ABC transporter ATP-binding protein
Amino acid sequence: MNYILEVNNLSKEFNNFTLDNISFRLEPGYIMGFIGPNGAGKSTTIKLIMNLINKSGGEIKVFGLDHIEHEKEIKDRIGFVYDESHYYENLTIKQMKSIVSGFYSKWDDNIFNRYMREFNLNPKSKIKTLSKGMKTKFSLAVALSHNADLIIMDEPTSGLDPIFRREILDILHNIIQDEHKSIFFSTHITTDLEKVADYITFINNGKMVFSRPKDEILDNYAMVKGGTDLLNSDTRNQFIGLRETSVGFEGLTDNIDNIKKIFKDEVLIERATLEDIMFYIVRR
Ligand SMILES: Nc1ncnc2c1ncn2[C@@H]1O[C@H](COP(=O)(O)OP(=O)(O)OP(=O)(O)O)[C@@H](O)[C@H]1O
């Protein structure tokens, strides 16, 4: 299998944090969402992939090539959206574009100008006058204007209004219709991923939780609701996480058959959302 992005046993040691043996693979033609609570290590992983910081161990391959040995060639084919603005604030969009376009062999001004119009951005505006959302739009336009085969984004939809967020999701969805391109992005907005992601990689506290197809995850987990009278030390242990209120309990399971066997029809079993899954796994 030719993977567009392959991360194997990636580790990074900081003084107070360790990113520990992170592994996942992304095939051409798919969108992978990267999730985890604050401080899980998502930005660190993305910076490592982009070779902005040095890894302590492991291997990263992009387009089948080592990400350090072939950095220049790889970066030419990656559209990157970072969560902080890394542009010169005193330049206009047009001036900044002239600088960044020079880094890419397949830069296409027509595509860039189309996004400027679509995103309602004025090329004459200075970067420093742009709102957070407008800066993100500019970053996105740059990332999408050089025929990249892999789009990597660190929280691209944060700070964007729901209408534009939805437009972005449509754009991302259209990009992968070309089955050679893939998208990898971190986000806290799990409902966005429910709409567009094919795969979800979930990390918590620097460690892998899972990297699996989204549909498989959503089929595998379920929310169970029932009265607190059903709970005792045995039945409690059947749940990954549990929340009790005055009216009953709600718990996450990854073993629906087992729950059915134990509680029969005394509980309600509902589809879990990615947010439910993340919440209960992190709280555990
Ligand atoms: N340069 C650094 N030096 C020391 N520690 C760092 C450095 N960069 C990040 N960390 C630590 O690594 C951990 C993971 O941070 P990271 O930014 O990767 O998390 P994240 O999952 O992207 O979080 P968020 O969702 O809040 O953006 C944090 O504890 C952070 O303090």
Notes: The longest strand covers residues 5-13. The radius of gyration is 21 Å.
